[in-house]
Amino acid sequence: MPGDVDIPREAQIVVIGGGVLGTSAAFHLAAAGQQNIVLLDRGPIAGGTTPFAAGQTAYLPANQALLPFTTYCIDFFERFAEHTGYAIDFHQNGSLRIALTEQHLSGIDARLEAAHSIGDAAERLTPQQARELAPHLDVPDAKGILFAPRDGYVEPRSVAAGYAAGARDRGVTICTRTPVTGVEVVDGAVQAVQTAAGTIRTQWVVLAAGAWTRQFSQQLGLNIRAVPVRHQAFVTAPLSGVTASQPVVRIVDTQVYARPEAGGLLVGGYGYRPLSFDMDAFPNRFEIPDLEADQIYFQQLTDAAIEAFPVLRDAGVIQERRGLPTITPDGQYLVSEVDQVQGLVVASGCQVGGIWSSPGLGRIVADIVSGQDSLPAEAFKVDRFADAYAHDTALRSQCERVYAGHYWDLY
Ligand SMILES: Cc1cc2nc3c(=O)[nH]c(=O)nc-3n(C[C@H](O)[C@H](O)[C@H](O)COP(=O)(O)OP(=O)(O)OC[C@H]3O[C@@H](n4cnc5c(N)ncnc54)[C@H](O)[C@@H]3O)c2cc1C
Question: Exposed, middle or buried by CB within 10 Å (0-12, 13-18, 19+), for 186?
């Protein structure tokens, strides 16, 4: 049975996808004064990759041009309840970014410079100082450790739920269990959205369908350069000595991260057996929890994590998390109107960072529809690849390569 609410027959803007990007877009559009907005999801709110995220924030970029975007995001999280009316669980415990070798020191320095350029406190720590903050951390030979006190982590489902509730309070109609089956385009412009529960005439469509974005847009003849790539993490049973207030730890060389979760550690990592997917290869009813866990990925990740956290050698695993974030060939987000279809805005290419970057990405969507440019978004244009990576094989290999070097500041 589709939908909790009768779907309207007309709207100004239809948002497809109730993950963190679609809900942020709907919230920001409504907060910018746009009216007659409908958000549709084929399942519940936050029913895709969003609830499986580690929810870590990382607002200090190596590329300083991104600072206006990233500071918008962290400012927003610090005042989420003020903005939306709903509190989220933001643990602003700080983060430790650790370079084990000289090779990755420049990324630490660049982030330190970024923090200081906006007057934020961030500092280099010794391995001993870092261990005082994160008790089980054992990296005595680390070449550089950056402590960024404004970083932390959020409970990802609460973020999408907060945006959705804030959007609804501002007049957005939210229809869950309503799959969108197509977008009608007439003379190169969006005309309507077709759903399992009927057609909605609209001028604007925001496509924020997560892993399904590329596949969905293919029916419009588009070749969106963002592919779903598997990402996995696990949560250990409680470990004595782990504190709820300890910072997020990121080991750049081995691309491992760890943060406290329910008395244990949530551990994830990039570059382990990178694998992209064509969503057409899955059955129609595929949902993110159906994604098979790759046990070799988990084993390689655990082996790497043990080097920095020896306590993990004997830790029991109580939960596995996995999902399909979307990656682009240059490691940058994908958010703009599409050249070929007037009124179609894509919000994708989350780079496994969609939770923390959701305020900025939602704001850019609102800017596009409102004809404003409060955040620089030139680098995120959907059509920036021109003819590059036009073939599936080249696109998928490059996106897997980008994922494989996620922490290495290659792009
Ligand atoms: C293990 C793991 C750890 C992660 N850690 C972090 C982290 O620490 N920090 C961080 O910022 N990010 C992290 N991420 C990434 C984060 O989860 C994603 O960036 C984010 O959830 C992407 O949100 P989304 O809205 O694009 O996609 P989704 O959450 O997948 O939402 C897409 C929605 O679109 C809907 N949809 C699809 N097709 C249709 C259709 N035809 N009609 C209607 N609805 C449709 C789906 O049902 C779904 O609800 C992590 C991810 C994983 C898997």
Answer: exposed
